[in-house]
């Protein structure tokens, strides 16, 4: 394998890692914050659901921005 192919492989590994992390962190953050607010206010799961949805939406917006930026480069 020459150096160009190695760099290309590492570039795609980094892109996949960035996508995974940028999707995982907002979802887990939403779950954590929603759970803490529900415990603090004594509600059942309403804030957990709300903040989980916010995390999921935020993840997909970030995913769209990352992939859109990558396609514009080519």
Give the strand tally: 0
Helix content: over 70%
Number of helices: 2
Compute the CA-based radius of gyration.
17 Å
Low-confidence stretches: none
**Shape type:** elongated
Question: What report would you give on this structure?
Answer:
By secondary structure, the protein is mainly α. It has two helices and no strands. The protein has helices spanning 3-41, 46-73. Helix 1 packs antiparallel against helix 2 (46-73). The chain starts with a helix and ends with a helix. The mean pLDDT is 89.
Quick take:
By secondary structure, the chain is mainly alpha-helical.
Outline the secondary-structure elements.
Blueprint: H1 3-41, H2 46-73
Helix pairs in contact: 1-2
Tags for this model:
74 residues; mainly alpha; 2 helices; elongated
